[in-house]
């Protein structure tokens, strides 16, 4: 909402200057977004004239001007093409700040010639983008006049943010009223004269169809023989001062009342109307061309205005083009209506129209002002357009029953935390125009003023009181952490998860992984190649690149690797902990990692290419941090199409996927980076039991004083043998004595048959109670051989 | 045989020995089973008691001295040999290593941790909910009816898929739905914060279609606006490490709180940089208020018995302010150069 200081003063008697008003506005919840006060920023620029000029000796396009500001003469180097003798413009002396180009002028030489200031363009003044030369002023203005006065900029402009509940402050009058209740001035009386001599019947009547459209009440009046020319100077100036374009008197009057009183109106060219006007719901397929020169397709939710032939507007939103008023308009019909806010919101939103009328109607207008709005508009029309006004016609009913609230004074203390005397509470309410119809020591009954549609309940009253009293008076108190809170925090699954994420992040950082955060969406290409569900499509994505909720982070991460590779990063390891989506109801928070290395040219510090085994070790470490040994899980080849079928694995616990990892499928990589191989992993942290992974695993520390024995075994297995299973079987042979099994060699050869593989591992055996005898060791060894040969159809070598 | 002569010979031979082998043969020659000094000891048995005592002592002394000298000499040779070897093993210590990068964590991770810790100290536990939400949880339950202008305050992403009430699913525009889920499923007292990803269809240097928010909710029988104010000021002091932080609370509007407030932090521009905490300019930092009784009722709680406060702030925004970062888009594009400069290494988290 924009308005000027002088416009505000039409309604408010105040001694406060613009800055103080701005501060007061923010303090009562009408947040000041911008105050353009040219007297502050432009006060030091003055009117000056170029008394002579000549070409700059060292630059074709520059001129050396002698500028007179009324008290002194200056030499100014100027590049503007419109330099001429006796030109009057705006002059900035050296040392001044030029707002439009964010520069402070320094005394200096330009191409060897002294320049003591600058003649300014509109752009340099920050008034517009106009840079086609320096400003030229009327020759009558005296040199030395300050620029603010000369340019008519001495009226500070306010821009304030109006929250959706404050429809009443979408008017200068409403803002003045709110400021007055805070004590920032006195609201001026505002009298509307009813026009006399309205003695003919309006040839156009109003009807409201009972089809549940949003119009509840409408007034109309016919004006004949008006002349719709240019608005009076004061009105043109007012509209211009807040950036509105004056059109013609009728349009300007309706715009003015909209801004000044928050009361939108509409005028039809009555000669374009056939018969009467009806408010009703549109049919699907109807369309209308409106004043913004666009054509809208309508549906059953739009309330429209039509005569017997045509649609003449989208009610409460925008008028129709055909019956719009022009300079030729001779007879007009004025509409002043009241609508159901939700109906207007729905209608305008469905068409994507933002208009001043919509903005006010969807927040609710002052119903008591409907009739006054008619009178006010009528008197301005008669005054500035002439003609005669008809009797008023109407349709519908206006429910003017005020809202009544029973309020208990002690509720203020309960909600705000400090006490305020009932007398003081009531004073604030009265300032705001609330009527106290009944009152005792504890309670009162309040009648809400007609312009405050947002006030319904006791809590609204409390808000009004503290808003005017000032939030700065609210006492700061502390919320203390209780034992109960501490226990809740300790047991909160989400708190635990964040601790777990932190642990994983630290491990990854120590492995030189970089943490990234990417969007929860990805491109349709990624979604297709990663086989995501169609249910995850956004209906209003910002671009094709982000139009699906991601079902994996791989698409986003490959893009990151690619972008970074273009910046010269030949080795990268990245990870993200965040959400992926299976469908609209299932979201997993997972750890996703990705890494690749390019062969380095460095022969001194050689790097090993990152490979499946390097990744396996990292996965194993991360799982260890989560209190799991990787071999505990069921491992199988991944059939997921994101991965290289031979170089990828999945870990499962029962029916739950715990992790998948391996080389990204070359077909997917092709679209992104030229890296030879990219490795990636997803760990489904959520699928692991929270309490197991959260707690520190307690391993009882006991170092056996007895010697340990180690023995190596080599077996020939079928080459598809799952060695996780072999590991688990060996560990299961004697849980007390077998400490670990360390696999350390593997080979394939013709000698052992190409369908086979040779695997070597070392078993470490140690008792906590005694030195094991050879016989006992031999027993275990033979059990190992027996188990493996029988269970896995393997053959001991040597 | 003359002991001293033998010893003298032995020592002079030792002097000439320059490797382990020659020392070993010298040891055999003099101290071996048939060595010269061993022979002298053997000859003792033919002497008189008195001579045995006298001669024996001198032989033993000679033996000890030789042993000691042999050891010393062999240590020296060993040392000399090693040094000789090492002198050939010198490598170029000045060859510069390739550029290495420490693993860095995203600034948001640090903020998450700090926010959870600071509110944790006030007794708030963490709660969470899904990013894809129902229209009811994201709007209606929060007192934002379908045709309310407040819906226009937030540009919402919708999915094609519809929920049980036949409304399209939305990407949550704030983490407030977590408050609804918590209030629906828990009995007061409630004291939670909900950090997480949030979404609005907006994209420029200060708006990202995805960003992070933390919201807080406290419901009990007597929490008032003074608690709200006190806690949030404390949070900001803690988070920004500014003890005499200048703040202001001013009235605002959110459908789910009443009275509603926004909190601003004072700042000034010093050397083209934002200096937080003092000055005469104001930066909006968070929105808050007393939970609207309608929301409490929507969550099947008795609003005449329970009341509380709620607040919400942008995690990316406070991260940017605290660490002087300017473009929110760089938070989410994985740019390694940016992360190198602005991420936090393990030791600094």
Looking at the overall shape, the CATH architecture of the largest domain in chain B is 2-Layer Sandwich
The name of the CATH topology of the largest domain in chain B is BirA Bifunctional Protein, domain 2
Query: What is the helix/strand order of chain B?
Result: HHHHEHEEHEEHEEHEEEEHEHHE
Proportion of residues in extended strands of chain B: 15-25%
Q: Specify the CATH architecture of the largest domain in chain A.
A: 2-Layer Sandwich
Q: Indicate the CATH class of the largest domain in chain B.
A: Alpha Beta
CATH superfamily of the largest domain in chain A: Bira Bifunctional Protein, Domain 2
Query: How many angstroms separate the termini of chain A?
Result: 92 Å
Number of DSSP helical runs of chain A = 22
Inertia-based shape of chain A: elongated
What number of structural domains do the residues of chain B give?
2
Q: Considering residues with a beta carbon less than 8 A from a beta carbon on another chain, report the largest interface and each chain's count.
A: A-B, 101 and 92 residues
Taking pLDDT < 50 over at least 5 consecutive residues as the criterion, the unreliable ranges of chain B are none
Task: Identify the overall geometry of chain B.
Answer: rod-shaped
Alpha plus pi helix count of chain B: 11
Radius of gyration of chain A, in Å, reads 41 Å
Distance between the termini of chain B: 81 Å
